[in-house]
Design a protein that fits this description.
This protein is mainly β. The chain is built from 2 helices and 13 strands, in the order E-E-E-E-E-H-E-E-E-E-E-E-E-H-E. The chain has a 5-stranded mixed barrel with strand order 4-5-6-12-11. The chain has a two-stranded antiparallel ribbon with strand order 1-2.
């Protein structure tokens, strides 16, 4: 990993406990002063999830800081493949831990993986604009207008469908179902905090960047892929900077948006 990954200090981030990013050292044809946070792919069965544009928002401004879109992935009982996934995550975490010389709290093997994505971030200064900054299609009920002065809406979570021709087509998140087999993109957010013994510990949180629907729950059940659920008796099988630094996020190329 030392050949292609590095830990970067994001000087624009005001919270010193969250300003470390794991990035790719080099990217082909990358523009100057551009960094690419490292992304990983995870595959598993959907459990609890809420991926609408405004996630779990109640509509109250007091809740804006806590609003997230979230996804929980399960192994479906496939221990060997799941343990390999956790090994990879912990390897990345161990590398970051050694670079920063801070002990790391690893990801446990026997639990589901939880990923989230914040829907809003706080503005440095209130926006002096009365027009709606979101398109009508992105906010059909006009819910965001009441908080757009102090808050910035984040990009929506991209959801795609892997077709029989191996293309990824944009799809409505309403079609996702608990038990579907999915491919999920994740970036790793590292946070330092003090434990109960006042020791500085590094923790890793997974930020969801996209979801690709691979096998629907009905076919998962007919193929007995979910060993954690009761068996029950269809879609394709898966084939130091002077200027502000731009952060580009690694995303799959959707063939249609």
């Amino acid at each position: 990993m030392a050949e292609w990954a590095d830990v970067y200090k994001d000087r624009e981030h005001k919270d010193p406990s969250r300003n470390r990013i794991l990035i790719y050292k080099t990217m082909p044809n990358a523009a100057p002063n551009t960094v690419f946070p490292m992304a990983i792919r995870l595959q598993g069965l959907l459990r609890d999830f809420q991926v609408e544009r405004f996630g779990n928002w109640t509509g109250q401004e007091s809740d804006a800081l806590k609003v997230v879109q979230h996804v929980t992935l399960s192994s479906g009982g496939h221990k060997k493949a799941w343990d390999s996934t956790i090994d990879s995550i912990n390897l990345v975490c161990e590398y970051t831990s050694r670079c920063l010389h801070i002990p790391m709290q690893g990801t446990p093997y026997d639990k589901d993986l939880y990923l989230q994505k914040h829907a809003f971030i706080k503005r440095d200064e209130p926006l002096k604009l009365k027009d709606h900054i979101l398109k009508a299609i992105d906010d059909l009920e006009g819910r965001f207008l009441c908080i757009q002065e102090p808050w910035i809406p984040q990009q929506p979570l991209h959801v795609g469908d892997l077709t029989e021709t191996a293309k990824i087509m944009a799809m409505d998140s309403m079609l996702l179902t608990k038990g579907d087999f999915v491919d999920v993109g994740a970036e790793l957010d590292f946070v330092t905090h003090r434990d109960q013994y006042a020791r500085t510990i590094l923790k890793c949180f997974l930020t969801c960047s996209y979801i690709v629907w691979i096998i629907p729950v009905g076919q998962v059940q007919s193929m007995n892929l979910d060993n954690k659920s009761a068996p029950q008796k269809c879609k394709a099988t898966p084939p130091k900077m002077d200027r502000p630094t731009k952060k580009h996020h690694t995303m799959p190329g959707f063939d249609e948006v």
